[in-house]
Amino acid sequence: MKVHEANAAITALRDLGAATVHEAQGCRGALSAAIKPIDINCRLGGRALTVDAAPGDNLILHHALTKARPGDVLVVDAKGYLEAGPWGDILSEAAMLRGLSGLVIDGAVRDAAAIEEMGFPVFCRGLSIRGTGKNQPGVIGQPIVVGGTLVRTGDVIIGDRDGVVVVAAEETDAVVDRARQRAEKETAFRASLREGRTTVELLALEATIERLGLR
């Protein structure tokens, strides 16, 4: 896939939304619901650059920024550690200057207000005022599990207020097609509702309701 085609696919998935993308790929790829955006209005779309980080240390994050390319999303397994924030406003500014699309971290961040003000998409498990060390090793670019989901460098990361979903790199085009079809189906669904039909009819739930004896 050419670069402009890949970027167009990522933009399409971002605009369709994380929930639609999740449904379109058979309800696969969702990260833990605990990982949410600092700014609920932000949207995230980009290629993953994976980082396996030691809890309470951010040396590998500084190093990862020197390896990242424009459009990348740093996806960090910080082991869900919430008692220190290895990412803050300085790293966010550095990431923006390098053209990164955002950060997803299974851990905490700090300087939330400043990050929100600068408009850098950050998705995290929580917030912590505590700083971190810069002493421990880590790994960049290898498959990791973040929020219970496997992420590989090059996979597509989509995030919004609902949460974060990962799309395998080789499935991107197919998921774009299915997500668009789902969006079109939902548009038709809404039109039918406005015409007076019910969700029970549209989802063919009558038999299940009858079987369960619901009244």
From TrEMBL:
<dbReference type="Pfam" id="PF03737">
    <property type="entry name" value="RraA-like"/>
</dbReference>
<dbReference type="GO" id="GO:0046872">
    <property type="term" value="F:metal ion binding"/>
</dbReference>
<feature type="binding site">
    <location>
        <position position="111"/>
    </location>
    <ligand>
        <name>Mg(2+)</name>
    </ligand>
</feature>
<dbReference type="InterPro" id="IPR005493">
    <property type="entry name" value="RraA/RraA-like"/>
</dbReference>
<keyword id="KW-0460">Magnesium</keyword>
<protein>
    <recommendedName>
        <fullName>Putative 4-hydroxy-4-methyl-2-oxoglutarate aldolase</fullName>
    </recommendedName>
</protein>
<feature type="binding site">
    <location>
        <position position="110"/>
    </location>
    <ligand>
        <name>substrate</name>
    </ligand>
</feature>
<keyword id="KW-0479">Metal-binding</keyword>
<feature type="binding site">
    <location>
        <begin position="88"/>
        <end position="91"/>
    </location>
    <ligand>
        <name>substrate</name>
    </ligand>
</feature>
<dbReference type="InterPro" id="IPR036704">
    <property type="entry name" value="RraA/RraA-like_sf"/>
</dbReference>
